[in-house]
Prior knowledge:
The structure is a homotetramer.
Chain A: H1 14-31, H2 38-45, H3 49-55, H4 59-70, H5 82-98, H6 102-114, H7 116-144, H8 153-170, H9 178-194
Helix pairs in contact in A: 1-2, 5-7, 5-8, 5-9, 6-7, 7-8, 8-9
Chain A binds a DNA duplex through residues 6-13, 16, 37-40, 42, 46-51, 53-54, 57-59.
Amino acid sequence: MATSKHAGGRPREQRVDTAIAAAVRAVIGESGYAGLTVDAVAATAGVGKASIYRRYATKQEMTFAVLLHDLREESPADTGTLHGDLSALTEQIAEQLRGPGAGTLTGLLADIRADPELRTRFAETFLAVERGIITTLLDRAITRGELTHRPDAALVQALLLGPLFAWLIVLDEDSARATELAHLVATVATNALTANLLPTETWSTPVTAPDAVPGR
Amino acid sequence: MATSKHAGGRPREQRVDTAIAAAVRAVIGESGYAGLTVDAVAATAGVGKASIYRRYATKQEMTFAVLLHDLREESPADTGTLHGDLSALTEQIAEQLRGPGAGTLTGLLADIRADPELRTRFAETFLAVERGIITTLLDRAITRGELTHRPDAALVQALLLGPLFAWLIVLDEDSARATELAHLVATVATNALTANLLPTETWSTPVTAPDAVPGR
Amino acid sequence: MATSKHAGGRPREQRVDTAIAAAVRAVIGESGYAGLTVDAVAATAGVGKASIYRRYATKQEMTFAVLLHDLREESPADTGTLHGDLSALTEQIAEQLRGPGAGTLTGLLADIRADPELRTRFAETFLAVERGIITTLLDRAITRGELTHRPDAALVQALLLGPLFAWLIVLDEDSARATELAHLVATVATNALTANLLPTETWSTPVTAPDAVPGR
Amino acid sequence: MATSKHAGGRPREQRVDTAIAAAVRAVIGESGYAGLTVDAVAATAGVGKASIYRRYATKQEMTFAVLLHDLREESPADTGTLHGDLSALTEQIAEQLRGPGAGTLTGLLADIRADPELRTRFAETFLAVERGIITTLLDRAITRGELTHRPDAALVQALLLGPLFAWLIVLDEDSARATELAHLVATVATNALTANLLPTETWSTPVTAPDAVPGR
DNA sequence: ATATAAGCGAGACGGTACGTCACGTCTTTGT
DNA sequence: ACAAAGACGTGACGTACCGTCTCGCTTATAT
């Protein structure tokens, strides 16, 4: 059994993909998200514009692919307690948000919102994955007996992600204190969950594709 | 001493200001934030481009002025309890975020982040006001005896604003449930505050003047 | 009666028109017709590309307008004899063909042929004018009694223009001898005309409307 | 001694040459000379682009080779009179010019003029051959006693080729009348020649290689 | 028989030019 | 002096072609 044999014609060079990704990051580092032009990326990467547009339909898609590739969520380790799990997750989120920088993230988010296709892909490949992690984590707590039932994961996600996002992106506060905030958020959320403040998911409002999550 | 006497020449028509503001909203409603061009605004408003640029230095400034004028925070009413006050505030925040739509807010936020001057004005005229409200609210709770000391307002702001922002803007969840989330957030925050989970503001991190940090 | 009053808005600057025309000629002189790019013209003229495209829909239209403006036919002087008139005309044609250079003319001609609209304009503004001159000239000869009837002007045009075009453009022969050839052509044509070798225009074949030809 | 033995490796398939030639003509017929792209030719021919570039260095060379292969001049038959010979030649020229269509010829001519190498080859393989034919024809007339001396062949060529070229290519007149014009041109040229209007070739201005012609 | 060499379709590659669009400025005519 | 209209220089966008290259494969001759 073969895996995608290569139909014919010259295969895409991985070197080009690498160069594009590096160039995107370099140009953003140099000129910011606003100064990110396709020509600049092509020039920096030593690559033709056509090679970029052969891979990505628009500049936004390119940026999305390059920048969000780094942000891929990893499966959370079991720390033994709900608070520990939540703490690990919020720390990871803080880490990810800190990376690209506030300016980049707002620009990227705006671009994602403007393009319906990107929006869907963002929801599916990023938000849904994170939500899946949260679900896993909550189920573990139920198994342990820390929780009696599973609350709405979307609300939990908002409670966890929101404060960190606000701190780093909206308020533009000191990123050094993000870890501190991460722990605070984890504690607050743990309290809320164990106090049964959150309703269960009764209205079924999945981000996009709930079935695509657990199988992963 | 008179206030802005009008030095000479034809005075500006207020009609033009109104038309611009209306046109900005109309164009965004029609074509989204991405389709918001100065030419489109001028044409829709029946106004020359020069009249726009006589008022605002850049397109971003125009958008900022028009869209964030509505969002001016109002002084909070004293509901008698900390939880009531927080609930009123989060509801107000939810209301404001629901208004312009997610696409508009992300775009606007990106533009604000890209322009240092706008960033400062955003922090001063919006974030700082909101933070002031929070401070007022916390002081009231201390007076009532609900709190023993005043925790860091920036952290409180992140905890209150964040989940709503995430829900409406990042996760793009059902805006009808925003009120529900607002109450949840208020409750969670009240619990955290009364449990003394938040540290007091020891590092002095004002929103408006990061350069005022004493370490300098 | 006024001549196109200027409806409103900033008027086109004639300086730009002039600069574009000069730049087109400069770039062709520098890099040949093949090296004539819109960007080069814009840069040389110190003009934005948009200002070029505001005037001309395509590069070809620009080239057409600039290069064929010089070639405008002037009304022929009456020399007193048919041979003298023809000689003056062929000399003028030779002069015009010699000007832009063979490479430019072939390129321009190819572009004109490729665009139906340009083709029509070329026929109307250039070929038809030249043919009108020929008609005038023949009528004069009839008045003088040198000719008994007016032969088909299209055939005369082919006989006069053709050899010079072939010599300079197709065969790329010595342009210094073009004047000699012009006189020869005039003499040969005079002989043919006075010998009544050419038929009268019976089929009605206007330059501008070739589709009206019945034989098709 | 063998002719090009084939050093090793797979020999070129003649099928490919044929397919390319057919495709060039097909694409021109479909999209005109302007729409003649190498990719289109390759796709139409069912051939890789590399196979085209293995045969021709540039697109222009390909076009040249394919389109001018048909136009090869054939040796003229002796009709017994100068006028008959000239008539046969002009008819043949008219036939050749009628074939590819005006748009194609102007485009091709422009490309030939732009490339020095093609220009040389065009002069040598096409113009010089035609001039050789004219020379032969004139010599025959001298032998017959119709002419007393041999006039400049380049001038004769211009007189013969020019009007037909102008009629079909520049003026874009009815190609059905080209034969009529061919006879007219032959008559006019015969008159001019027998009237000794043309000078002999005193300045020696061969197209390219005069010695390469007669020996054939 | 097998190695060597080149041709083959397919299509990716770096470049270059095209024509479009938006920005923020400037210049006209009116009021 | 402000207003509407719209031209101006700048610069990025996404598309199209050119001529080159690299794949995996096929087809000849040379050993």
